[in-house]
Amino acid sequence: MGKKNILRIVSAGAVWIAVLLWMLFIYSMSAETSEQSGQTSGEVVDKIADIIVPGYDELPEEEKESVKDKLSLPVRKLAHFTEYAVLGALLALAVTLTGRHTVITTKKIIIAFGIGCIYAFSDELHQSFVPGRGPSVTDVLIDCSGVICGTLSVIVIIYIIKRVIIRKAEKNKTADKECQSF
Question: Terminus of the chain with fewer CB atoms < 10 Å: N or C?
Fold first, then answer.
């Protein structure tokens, strides 16, 4: 087994570990009771409001609560989307590095998307057993959208990297031919 194969196997293993750790993070967030989840979201919303609302600190408490109420739902849904976009990106990398050929194929993308969406569904099912929480079809759709975006991001990044490498190689060939003509 060559160094290249060992590096690929180690890389794939590291990314799969990252996938599992990220799934564990998502699970732990979903395991919070509605009260804990609300408190976590409230702290995040408060920080975001402080950044995007001029003079937020000086607002009366009643107005602060109004701002938080308006921001709460979008922030929570964006958190769902972001968690699963990261998962989608990790899954795309993991399935791409797994196997003999580290090439992105339609089959590998479907596998990454499938794993991500099955996990999203199971995560919502898990929430039905957490006090004060429940499953949401909307959240599954948001999560799957995140998986798609994360997966597509990896595809685009890999495509760009390959194009840069190809162009660099073409420039080197041209430079080599020019040098040989002297």
Answer: C
Tell me the per-residue pLDDT of 59-86, one tens digit each, with 9 for 90 and over. Answer: 999 999 999 999 999 999 999 999 999 9
DSSP code for 129: T
- Please write the tens of the pLDDT for every residue from 16-64: 999 999 999 999 999 999 999 999 999 999 999 999 999 998 999 999 9
Rg (CA), the chain: 22
Query: Measuring CA to CA, which residue among 153, 12, 151 is closest to residue 92?
Result: 151
What is the amino acid identity at position 160? I
Q: Delimit the domains of the chain by residue range.
A: 3-180
**Taking a C-beta distance cutoff of 8 angstroms, is the pair 127, 36 a contact?**
no
Q: Rounded to 5 degrees, what angle do the CA atoms 166, 108, 79 make?
A: 95
Q: Are 47 and 122 in contact (CB under 8 A)?
A: no
pTM of the model: 0.86
Single-letter code of the amino acid located at 168:
K
Of the candidates 118, 105, 92, the residue with the CA atom closest to the CA atom of residue 19: 92
111 CB contacts (<8 Å, ≥6 apart)?
Answer: 95
Angle CA 52–57–60, to nearest 5: 115
Picking from 164, 126, 119, the residue whose alpha carbon sits closest to that of residue 146 is 119
